[in-house]
Amino acid sequence: MGIEETREKIVSVADRLFRRFGFQKTSMDEIARIARKAKGSLYYHFSGKEELFREVVQNEVNGMKSKLLVIVNNSDYNSGGKLKTYMQTRMDVLQHATNYHETIQSDDHDHFEFMKDIRKDLDDWERVQICSIIREGVETGEFELDLSVEVLSDIIIMIVKGLEGPFYLQGRYTEYSPYFDGLAKILMKGLSKMY
Predict the structure, then answer these.
(1) CATH of the domain spanning 1-46, picked from 1.10.10.60, 1.10.1200.10, 3.30.465.10, 1.10.1740.10
(2) Percent of the chain having pLDDT more than 70?
(3) pLDDT at residue 195, as a whole number
(4) Which residues in the chain show pLDDT less than 70?
(5) What is the C-alpha separation between 8 and 16, in angstroms, rounded?
(6) Residue 67: count of CB within 10 angstroms of its CB
(7) Residue 192 and residue 81: Cα distance in Å, rounded?
(8) Scanning 51, 85, 180, 191, which has the fewest C-beta atoms within 10 Å of its C-beta?
(9) Half-sphere exposure for 30 (CA within 13 Å, toward CB)
């Protein structure tokens, strides 16, 4: 098994264990045992559990970014459709990003200080994508704005991030996800001439 394959196997096993037991209750010893690797092999690839967890969460975030880019670049959608689908897809994808959920728990927020850069990178990336959708809507005449594109983008990000706690940490996603379409429609009505 090559270096990259070994690293991928370690990340895959760590992902499963972190999902099942959480960051706090998963040990490097357990990851090594399940991956059938010497503990030293884990430390060859990762400086510690934090770095390994960071890679696992980064993989979840990268998966979400890939799915969202498909929407942003899809010329079959108008801007309103893109924004609505973007928001719905984001929430659906994050429903399954169990390790990401652990980083948003307020009690352990300080413990996940090492995750701040991933969250900031995601915020910055989403701001670019949402601004792109909004600008496209303004240019085509689909959206009318009374505020700047950047401010509106920040507000949309705050709205969807504000739902993360109740949806994922309080387990209310299944209960409220059927109504997410209605929330997106309200937002679109505020932006659009067409809705």
Answers:
(1) 1.10.10.60
(2) 94
(3) 45
(4) 106-111, 192-195
(5) 12
(6) 14
(7) 11
(8) 51
(9) 14
